[in-house]
Design brief:
By secondary structure, the chain is of the alpha+beta class. The chain has helices at 3-10, 56-76, 81-84, 124-140, 159-172, 182-190, 196-203, 244-255, 273-287, 293-320, 332-349, 351-362; strands spanning 19-24, 32-38, 42-48, 88-89, 98-99, 105-110, 115-116, 210-212, 221-224, 230-233, 240-242. 44% of the residues are buried. The protein binds adenosine-5'-diphosphate, 2-acetamido-2-deoxy-1-O-phosphono-alpha-D-glucopyranose (GN1) and magnesium ion.
């Protein structure tokens, strides 16, 4: 996007000070994110991805509701609302977003300063701190009215329908690349048995629906630069009713891999059990006895399911011609799918150890 446009769009929001500069920021796969510097403060401006979120109004309706709710809780416990929650900066017309003439939606958050978001864990303690932050987030939203939330992406973590979408992508083969990724397709199909485990548990009432984040990767939590603590959970676009297992499993998927999510050298990609233990310890220390026996039992398998689901989404997008996740090089989604499948295979091998670790903190 041109600097000129950024200035123009920024000026439609209630930011303090005059626009100075704007530049692309962060490593999210979905929205277009910019850091805006004004004469007074820093802001995050985002163009909401309209082909992922069919109703950006509903997304912002959720984000405003959730952040207002969090703001009240943080204030009443004496916390700092400028650092412990995303703060929506309204448009000058009072809305939570701006819709431009070309039909694009933009929003602005206050920039959380003196904090970092990691692409990979630097030291085990970071992952413990991230787990505490995601656990706290889950706790703070435990009395939020789930019925007031829009379902921003239908069936977001329904692994069964994700498989149906994947099989359609294979059959349609829009990119013409299916023959070159037969081994990956076969891996995905050989693991389809995992897909219904959480979905059926929810449908049969064995797994409770809660308000969950649904996208708990490490770079969606801001860590304080000085204390190292997880201060703020960000990227609230998919906060919806879901399972705690989605949030746990997705964190493990991304954070226990000591390599990048798109690492090409698969010998560097594996599930680090020291990191797994740090996360279990941090997450469960926050949840206490709120976690049910059934959920606790399914924690290890949820890591496999969420990793597999993400793998088939990446591979499906590769086959569909890279229409969903942002890519930055040829076969980027394929590289991402391969790391996920490597993680699944490694977790299967380490499954007994994973169960033992969970038992240590739940019994
Ligand atoms: P996406 O949905 O594309 O993943 P995110 O909302 O996660 O977009 O933002 C992308 C990145 O921008 C984050 O990983 C984080 O590094 C940074 N970021 C987002 N919001 C803020 C904020 N309020 N303050 C500081 N950094 C932010
Ligand atoms: C996307 O938005 P971001 O980059 O935090 C995706 C997640 C995937 C993740 C894989 C709305 O997350 O579901 O797990 O990429 N978000 C959406 O890295 O689809
Ligand atoms: Mg993100």
């Amino acid at each position: 996007m041109m600097e000129f446009d950024l200035k123009h769009i920024s000026e439609m929001f209630d930011m303090e000070g005059e626009y100075v500069s704007g530049s692309p920021y962060g490593e999210g796969h979905i929205n277009s994110t910019f850091l805006i510097q004004t004469t007074k403060d820093k802001y995050i401006l985002q163009k909401i991805n309209g082909s992922v979120f069919f109703s950006p109004e509903e997304v912002m309706d959720n984000v405003v509701k959730v952040t207002e709710f969090l703001k009240k809780k943080i204030l009443s416990s004496g916390g700092d609302v400028t650092r412990e929650t995303l703060l929506v900066i309204p448009a000058k017309d009072g809305h939570g977003y701006v819709k431009t003439e070309d039909g694009e939606y933009y929003r602005v958050y206050l920039f959380i300063d003196d904090a970092v978001s990691y692409q990979v864990v630097e030291k085990p303690e970071d992952f413990y701190n991230a787990a505490v932050a995601f656990g706290k987030f889950q706790n703070m939203l435990s009395d939020f009215d789930a019925d007031s939330l829009n379902e921003t992406i239908k069936n977001f973590h329904n692994t069964v329908t994700r498989y149906a979408d994947f099989e359609k992508a294979v059959a349609d083969n829009k990119s013409g690349k299916a023959d070159s990724v037969r081994a990956e397709i076969d891996f995905a199909m050989a693991h389809k048995k995992y897909a219904p485990i959480i979905v059926d548990g929810i449908a049969e009432g064995r797994i409770p629906l809660r308000v969950t984040h649904n996208d708990t990767k490490l770079n969606n939590v801001m860590m304080d630069k000085n204390t190292g603590k997880g201060i703020c959970v960000i990227d609230l676009d998919t906060v919806m009713p879901g399972s705690l297992l989605y949030d746990f499993g997705d964190s493990i998927r991304f954070g226990t891999n000591p390599a990048a999510e798109d690492e090409k050298d698969l010998s560097k990609v594996y599930c680090d059990l020291t990191l797994f233990e740090e996360y279990v310890k941090g997450f469960l220390s926050e949840l206490g006895d709120k976690i049910t026996d059934e959920e606790a039992e399914l924690l290890p398998i949820s890591a496999i399911i969420m990793t597999l689901e993400c793998g088939i989404r990446f591979l499906g997008d590769h086959l569909n011609g890279d229409v969903y996740f942002k890519i930055h090089r040829e076969n980027h989604n394929l590289d991402r799918a391969r790391t996920q499948f490597k993680m699944v295979a490694d977790m299967e091998e380490k499954f007994d150890r994973m169960k033992e670790i969970v038992c240590k903190y739940t019994k």
